[in-house]
Model the fold of this input.
Amino acid sequence: DALPIWERAELMAQAAPLEQERDALIAQRDRAEREFREANAVPATEQLLFLELDPLIYTDLFPLLRERQIPGVLALYPGNLPDDPGCMSRAAFDELVAAGWELCLYCEGTEDFPRWDQEMTELLAQAGIPKPRSVYFPEDAFRSEQAGEILACGYTVAIHHGEGGAPLIADEAGEELWLTGAHPWNYTGVREEIQEVVRLGGQHCFT
Done:
């Protein structure tokens, strides 16, 4: 039998504070989840990686990229350091770094990564350049089984070309090595790649 109207009204009155408390808890939970996502979000990042320290990077490209707030990354390796023949000056190099450009080391692949790292560390020390935390591997040079050695040598980012199924879009930070994919900037499908990076809030690199 249906409850009398007065009993239904009394029950509804008793339930109203509980419903308000439930709604407040749901709103609090949603707010906490949103704040957690925002705190752990990785901003979508496209970077231009320059494999040679061509002086034109500073004289011609830097003003354009700075105007559009596009970050640049400079690769370093023997014979490709500031003031080396055919490379930009140390003053230009220092200005790019001061403007927020990042550095990475160029590794063509090696069976003995710690030894390669030691040689590069000594080379950079002689040139007075701080050791970067990123290392770039050209196509077919990255080996996922070396990730532990790369991390142990102080690197936090490995830029690769998808060898061994490594993800081309980095969208999750963690304590392990951050794997960032690289593509030539003019490859087929670049527009779709950029859209996916933005959707995931990830990172990608163009060479």
